[in-house]
Amino acid sequence: MILENKKILIMGIRNKWSIAYGIAKSAYENRAKLIFTYADDENKGKTEDLISEFQGSKAYVLEDASKDELVKETFSKIKEENGKIDGIVHCIAHAFTEDLHNDFIETSKLRI
Prior knowledge:
The protein is α/β, with parallel strands linked by helices. It is built from three helices and four strands; from the N terminus they run βαβαβαβ.
């Protein structure tokens, strides 16, 4: 299997119809070890239920992906507990309506 024993971090899984879920399923079927992030305690249970079919997977909270320090802290914890990550899937999606009229490269970074 092409991804056997590779550690893949998947960010932004929301439900069984999300792109992140499809990627996770394919990676798991190719024997990857999956690591997920979720947004907050409100989403923890939902995420854990969703990823329960991916045996051995882990999930970490990333409360606000728009804040660089929180991203760094979460990535440090993931690295500390899992070692080297072989791939990252970024499916966290949000865009301001006005950004949808510009070129992709001009999309603003969400600040709450």
